[in-house]
Amino acid sequence: MKNKRTILIATGGTGGHVFPSIGLGNYLSKDYNIEIFTDKRGLKFFGNDQNFKITNILSSRVLGKNIINFFTGIVKVLISTILSVYLLIKIKPKLVIGMGGYASFPVCLAGYFLRVPLIIYENNLVIGRANKLLLPFAKKILVSTNSIQGINSKYKSKIFYT
Q1: Which residues pair with 119 in a beta bridge?
Q2: Residue 162: exposed, middle, or buried by beta-carbon count in 10 A (0-12, 13-18, 19+)?
Q3: What gap in Å lies between CA 71 and CA 55, rounded to an integer?
Q4: How are beta strands 140-143 and 118-122 bridged, if at all?
Q5: Residue 88: exposure state from Cβ atoms within 10 A (0-12, 13-18, ≥19)
Q6: pLDDT digit of tens for each residue in the chain (162 aa)?
Q7: How many whole angstroms separate alpha carbon 94 and alpha carbon 5?
Q8: What phi and psi values does residue 84 have, to the nearest 5 degrees?
Q9: Which pTM value belongs to this model?
Q10: DSSP string, the chain
Q11: Quick one: which of 59, 67, 64, 61 has its CA closest to 42?
Q12: Contact present, 134 and 118 (Cβ < 8 Å)
């Protein structure tokens, strides 16, 4: 297992993000070391018998009406990005897969800063905010429907239907 390459999956903390991450992690764990980064909300979806390592990262929603929560969220995203850079240097993944959700954003951004290839996955009909912000940095955009909305036409060549 030590000689395998590592793939990092960054996921939000809801079941809609975590369950596809678990499925992908289980599939890829046959050939790769898998590490999944999620926030404290996402941890409750994982059992003790996973084929991969799970790391809890600090995350926060940034958008909102409360100005204090906005600035607190920005600080948490900055701290999470810096911590993610450190962890990615330590882990040395060959690929980062962002599964959406605001908890995935700082990890994917850190991967981009370190020049680790980034693939994002969107399973909704409308691309989420985190994935939308990551579009310029992604090598590929995997989607679950051909009729996805919210992706600028300049990124159409990156889209692959899965």
Answers
A1: 97, 140
A2: exposed
A3: 25
A4: parallel
A5: buried
A6: 457 899 999 999 888 999 999 999 999 999 999 999 999 999 999 887 678 899 998 876 666 677 887 788 788 889 999 999 999 999 999 999 999 998 999 999 999 999 999 999 998 889 988 999 999 999 999 998 888 899 999 999 999 998
A7: 7
A8: -65, -40
A9: 0.91
A10: -TTS-EEEEE--SSHHHHHHHHHHHHHHTTTSEEEEEE-HHHHTT--S--SSEEEE-------SS-HHHHHHHHHHHHHHHHHHHHHHHHH--SEEEE-SSTTTHHHHHHHHHTT--EEEEE-SSB--HHHHHHGGG-SEEEES-TT-BS--GGGGGGEEE-
A11: 59
A12: yes
Q: Hey, what amino acid is at 117?
A: P
Residue pointed to by tokens 């999956």 = 9
Map tokens 């992706």 to a residue.
151
